[in-house]
Each structure stands twice: as structure tokens, then as C-alpha cells.
């Protein structure tokens, strides 16, 4: 690879460093080369370079770049430790958290468990249309409960990692030195997205460590969790870094005008000619017609990639909302008319899938006398936790109803009476019993599917929902730890005695696992999740307005909120640019013809 002038400057720089540049300008690549150079020349045997990133997806791309693209020798590779902020912070907290008053034994409060633990607090507030006072009071109540869970029970949620690590580092020079001794150089990926708590940690780390910050001020898409536009200036003031600007380079989509189009999105002025590598198309605002257009587009893109002989090709369908991720995934699985199904993976919020997986795991476990009570507990957990930090009131109510029906059942049993015929538990118990009656084989994959299928085909609509959520769990893939441990459990006991505990552990490990391969094939995901990734082709597919008597009654699945010109601001343009510039060879934009994306229209 021929390095650009800017990239060579990065290699030669000394001291704290700030590397800026647009999408695909080679920031990640050069930081890895720089890390490998430092690993070769300047590290003591026990030291490593730490590469910190926000998302595991980026981590996996970086790890892959280190192992394949750059031909970096193994010894230098081992000198680079790529990690998410979360997993780095967790290691610090586990080792030293007691110094700031946390219990000695800590466990992670995963997002689904956090949602379950906060459900009571949240159910005290209306789900929608909160007044400002209610919002503030809810926030305070949630914070208090999170802090209590950490301090009293040692269960720490992700949001508290950075504040606690900040407290720890600022109060202990010894630990700051300890970390610097282990990691003399720290690379900060996507630095523009650092929130104030993370920045506080970085300030402490920078006292003894050398910091290399990678940033694109115009790819800042985390405004809502506290990223600050002035963050780069904070870094400049605090650390007086050497600066290298790679901004005009574009290696990702070299030979196309994708990057140029991305820059024009920021100003909203487009040239008359088309941009090579960018394709636009529109569709009629009717579900089946929209999906037909999308799926035809997917077939076309797939064919282009196969014809071009791209190995392990990737094609991302980026959509604006969670709801659309599911809608598109369903349509690819069961396309309209007689179109062929499109094998794909969908990146969805995992709370519901994880809690559903716990139910499947329990159903694989033999009855130990508490089995049914535990099952009811997990069903309640599912409804309390499936909406993550935004549970719906109806889901919370469902949990309460299940709990009440169970208490009623116990009362009936104690009185020697039969259960009420219209109890919500009637169908649930019938399916539960069918699932428990399955003859398991010892092959976890097969058994898991058998249980899931009983739920899917059974008469209980709640368990049908659980089953369809669990479809999204991919960690049972061949060779994964969950699969191996379940097999081992069967070999040891002749049954899956610890299936639930094994499954819970596997999801926590999954959260920190660095082995995730970059995605290939067709992937459906929310536009926000595509940050830091790259795909051979990208299709951006937005929703369409629903009409009634000539009026728009719903337009919530749009790239710009409600596709309204009033909602166009820098953030909307930056988000769109991030999505567009994920494509290496082509980006296709599909928008409804009755109401095309306002970012593409000339100013009025
Ligand atoms: N000097 C170079 N010559 C050729 N290809 C390069 C060069 N530098 C980087 N690349 C390639 O360009 C692509 C994009 O680079 P990279 O991911 O480092 O950019 P980035 O600035 O981190 O992008 P983003 O901010 O959008 O994540 C990668 O596939 C990388 O291998």
C-alpha cells in the first residue's frame, strides 16, 4: 500500500496526535500501521498498544485489518490490543472498583437485566407525553436505582462504567501509572463521539499515556448521548497534539464519486450530472411494491458482486428505524409474489431475543421442582425487559397480568380448585407442557430448534412471539461457546441441567467477544449502526408515507424525521452522509416517489 503524504506524517509524528479525515480517508488503517511500528520499536515485553473503539463491529474490522490486510508480523500484532471502551472500563472496575466503594464482587447488569430491574421504577411514570418535571423525576429515579444496584448489589450497568472509571482514575495516580505502564500508547477511534464521562476518563489517561485520537467531526452521530461538537478543541487544549488532516483522501470508494456525493450532502448542493457509484430509484408507496423494488435491487446488487468475482462480498440494506429493520427482514424471508427468499442477517435490538433465549434454555432444562415457577419468572422478565430502556406500558402490564394469573393459579391449587378457564395461563401451560415433553437428543442445535418450533406452532400467542424473537439469536452457530457448553453439559449429566446459566453466561461473553467476524452476505441494519463499517454495496431504503383521505397519517420511517424540511439540520445531513459513504463500489438510494427524501431535493 502506498501511503499518502498525510499518512506518512502520522507515521513520523511523536507525542499526542490528532488525526482527522473524512469517511474512508484511511485513519483507521494508518493508526494500525503506526501501532505496529510502535509495537516493533518502543514496547517493553509486557506492554501493549490499546486501540479503543465504541462498537464491537468496528473492533472486528480493525482486528481483521490487522490480521489480513497489512501483513503485520504476529509479534507486532500481539502488541496491539483492540477493545471496546466498555470492555476496557469493565476490566478496570473489576480490578479496582472497591477503591471507590463498590463491592469486591461485581457483575454486569446487561441491558435486558437493567430493563427488568428498572421496570418497577419506570412503571410509576406514564410511557408517553411526559411533562418536563416527570421526565426529570423519572431520570433521577432511574439514576438512583442504577446507583443502588451498583453500590449495594455490585450489579453495574454499562452507563455507569465510564463515570465510575472516571472517579477511580481521578482519585488514584497509582492506577493512572499502572495503566500507562501497561498501555503506554492509546488509540481513540471515533474520538468525535466521546461523551463527557468518557472524556473525563481520557483526560486522566492522557496524563501518562500517549494518545492518538482519530476523528471526523462530520461523522458525529451520537449527539443524543452527549457527544460534544467542541470535543476536538478540548483535546487540542488539554494535550497540545500534533495534527494531521487526511480530509481530502478517499480510499474506500476510490474510482467512484461516492465520497464526493457524501460531501455534497453536507452542503445540500448537488451537481446536475450523476455521480458514479451512486444510484437513485423511487418506488410506489405501497408495501408490496416498495418491497418488490427493494428485493429486485438486492438481486441486482448481488449479481453485480458475483459477476465482479468479489470474494466474501457484503451488501448492506440500511434503513432509518428499528421497525423497518424487522419489516425488511420479514419481507426478505417471505417476499411478495413468487420472488425468491433472500438469505440475510438482520441486526436488531437484542433484548427481546436474549430474554426469549433464556426461556428456550429453561425449557431444555429438566424439571427440578421449581421449573414452572421459574418459567413464569422468565416470562415476566421477557415482558419487563423486551423494550430495553423504553418499555411500553402494555408490555409492563403483560408482565403484571402473568404474575397475577400465576398467583391466582397457586391459590386455586391450594384450595383444590381448577384454574379459571379463561386464564391467560391456559394456553401458555399447554404449550409449556408440550415443550417439556420433547425428547431431547443431546444435539443442542437440534434440541434448541425443536423447542423453538413447539412454541412457534403452539396455541399461545405470547410464546409464539418469544419464538419469533429468538429466531434472531445467532450465537448457536457452529463452533460457538454456547453450543459447546450445552453439549458438554449433556455429556456430563445426560440432560441440559445448567442450560439457563450457560445461556446467560454466553450472552455476557458475546457482548465482550472480539472474535466477531465482519459481516458478509446481505445484512439489514439501522443506519445508525453502520457507522465505522464498510460494505461492497449499500442500499439505503427508507419508509413511505401512509395516507388516508389524501392526508399523511404516518411518516415515521424516514431518513429525515417525517421527511420534513423543518427537520433538516447538520445532524440529519451527517447521518445520511455516514450511511452513503459506507459503500465501496456502489450506494443505491431508494425513496418513495410520492414524497422523496427532502435531503435530495433542491432548496425551495
Ligand atoms: N494509502 C492507502 N492506499 C490504498 N488503500 C488504502 C490506503 N489507506 C487506507 N486504504 C483502504 O481504504 C479503506 C478505508 O480506510 P479506513 O477504514 O482506514 O478509513 P477511515 O478513515 O477509518 O474511514 P471511516 O472514518 O469512514 O471509518 C480500507 O479498505 C483501507 O484498506
Question: What does it look like?
Answer:
A six-stranded parallel sheet has the order 3-2-6-7-1-8, sandwiched between helices. Strands 9-16-13-10-12-11 form a six-stranded parallel sheet. Strands 4-5 form a two-stranded parallel ribbon. The protein has 604 residues and is α/β, with parallel strands linked by helices. It contains 23 helices and 16 strands. A hairpin with a 2-residue loop joins strand 14 and strand 15 (551-554). The chain has four domains: 5-92 and 161-245, 3-Layer(aba) Sandwich (Rossmann fold); 105-156, no CATH class; 257-348 and 518-600, P-loop containing nucleotide triphosphate hydrolases (Rossmann fold), CATH 3.40.50.300; 350-513. 42% of the residues are buried. The longest helix is centred in the N-terminal third of the chain and has 22 residues, at 132-153. The radius of gyration is 26 Å and the shape is globular. Helix 5 crosses helix 8 (161-171) and helix 6 (111-123) crosses helix 16 (371-385). The model has no long low-confidence stretch (mean pLDDT 88). Adenosine-5'-triphosphate is lined by residues 1-4, 7, 21, 23-29, 69, 216, 251-252, 532. Residues 1-254 form the UvrD-like helicase ATP-binding domain. It holds the Pfam family UvrD-helicase. InterPro entries: DNA_helicase_UvrD/REP, P-loop_NTPase, UvrD-like_ATP-bd. One of its GO terms (biological process) is recombinational repair. It comes from Halomonas cerina.
Amino acid at each position: 500500500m502506498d501511503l499518502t503524504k498525510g499518512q506518512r506524517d502520522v507515521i513520523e509524528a511523536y507525542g499526542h496526535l490528532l488525526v482527522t479525515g473524512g469517511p474512508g480517508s484511511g485513519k483507521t488503517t494508518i493508526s494500525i500501521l503506526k501501532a505496529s511500528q510502535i509495537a516493533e520499536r518502543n514496547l517493553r515485553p509486557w506492554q501493549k498498544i490499546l486501540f479503543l473503539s465504541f462498537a464491537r463491529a468496528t473492533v472486528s474490522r480493525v482486528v481483521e485489518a490487522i490480521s489480513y490486510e497489512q501483513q503485520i508480523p504476529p509479534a507486532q500484532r500481539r502488541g496491539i490490543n483492540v477493545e471496546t471502551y466498555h470492555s476496557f472500563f469493565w476490566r478496570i472496575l473489576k480490578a479496582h472498583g472497591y477503591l471507590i466503594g463498590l463491592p469486591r464482587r461485581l457483575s454486569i447488569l446487561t441491558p435486558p437485566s437493567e430493563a427488568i430491574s428498572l421496570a418497577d421504577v419506570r412503571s410509576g411514570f406514564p410511557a408517553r407525553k411526559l411533562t418536563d418535571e416527570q421526565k426529570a423525576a423519572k431520570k433521577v429515579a432511574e439514576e438512583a436505582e442504577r446507583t443502588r444496584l451498583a453500590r449495594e448489589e455490585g450489579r453495574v450497568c454499562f452507563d455507569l462504567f465510564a463515570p465510575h472509571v472516571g472517579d477511580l482514575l481521578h482519585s488514584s495516580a497509582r492506577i493512572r501509572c499502572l495503566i500507562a505502564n501497561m498501555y503506554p500508547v492509546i488509540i481513540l477511534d471515533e474520538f468525535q463521539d466521546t461523551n463527557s464521562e468518557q472524556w473525563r476518563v481520557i483526560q486522566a489517561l492522557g496524563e501518562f499515556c500517549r494518545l492518538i485520537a482519530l476523528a471526523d467531526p462530520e461523522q458525529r452521530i451520537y449527539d443524543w448521548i452527549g457527544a460534544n461538537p467542541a470535543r476536538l478543541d478540548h483535546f487540542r487544549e488539554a494535550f497540545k497534539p500534533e495534527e494531521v488532516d487526511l480530509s481530502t483522501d478517499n480510499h474506500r470508494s476510490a474510482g467512484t464519486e461516492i465520497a464526493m456525493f457524501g460531501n455534497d450532502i453536507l452542503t445540500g448542493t448537488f451537481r446536475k450530472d450523476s455521480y458514479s457509484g451512486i444510484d437513485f430509484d423511487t418506488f410506489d408507496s405501497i408495501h408490496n411494491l416498495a418491497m418488490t423494488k427493494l428485493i429486485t435491487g438486492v438481486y441486482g446488487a448481488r449479481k453485480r458482486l458475483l459477476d465482479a468475482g468479489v470474494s466474501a462480498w457484503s451488501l448492506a440494506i440500511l434503513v432509518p428505524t428499528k421497525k423497518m429493520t424487522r419489516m425488511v427482514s420479514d419481507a426478505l424471508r417471505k417476499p411478495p409474489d413468487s420472488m425468491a427468499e433472500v438469505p440475510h442477517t438482520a441486526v436488531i435490538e437484542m433484548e427481546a431475543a436474549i430474554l426469549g433465549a433464556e426461556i428456550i434454555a429453561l425449557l431444555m432444562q429438566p424439571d427440578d421442582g421449581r421449573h414452572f415457577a421459574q418459567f413464569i419468572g422468565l416470562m415476566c422478565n421477557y415482558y419487563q425487559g423486551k423494550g430495553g430502556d423504553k418499555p411500553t406500558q402494555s408490555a409492563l402490564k403483560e408482565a403484571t397480568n402473568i404474575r397475577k394469573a400465576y398467583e391466582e393459579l397457586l391459590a386455586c391449587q391450594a384450595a383444590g380448585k381448577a384454574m379459571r378457564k379463561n386464564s391467560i395461563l391456559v394456553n401458555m401451560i399447554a404449550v409449556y407442557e408440550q415443550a417439556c415433553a420433547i425428547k431431547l437428543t443431546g444435539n443442542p442445535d437440534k434440541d434448541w430448534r425443536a423447542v423453538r418450533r413447539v412454541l412457534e406452532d403452539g396455541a399461545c400467542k405470547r410464546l409464539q412471539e418469544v419464538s419469533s424473537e429468538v429466531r434472531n439469536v445467532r450465537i448457536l452457530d457452529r463452533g460457538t461457546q454456547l453450543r459447546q457448553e450445552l453439549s458438554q453439559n449433556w455429556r456430563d449429566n445426560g440432560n441440559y441441567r445448567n442450560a439457563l446459566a450457560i445461556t446467560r453466561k454466553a450472552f455476557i461473553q458475546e457482548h465482550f467477544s472480539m472474535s466477531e467476524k465482519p459481516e458478509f452476505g446481505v445484512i439489514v441494519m439501522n443506519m445508525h449502526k453502520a457507522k465505522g463499517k464498510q460494505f461492497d454495496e449499500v442500499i439505503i431504503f427508507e419508509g413511505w408515507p401512509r395516507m388516508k383521505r389524501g392526508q399523511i397519517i404516518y411518516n415515521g420511517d424516514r431518513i429525515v424525521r417525517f421527511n420534513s424540511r423543518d427537520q433538516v439540520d447538520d445532524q440529519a445531513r451527517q447521518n445520511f452522509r455516514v450511511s452513503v459513504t459506507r459503500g465501496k463500489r456502489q450506494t443505491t438510494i431508494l425513496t418513495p416517489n410520492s414524497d422523496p427524501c427532502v435531503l435530495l431535493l433542491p432548496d425551495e
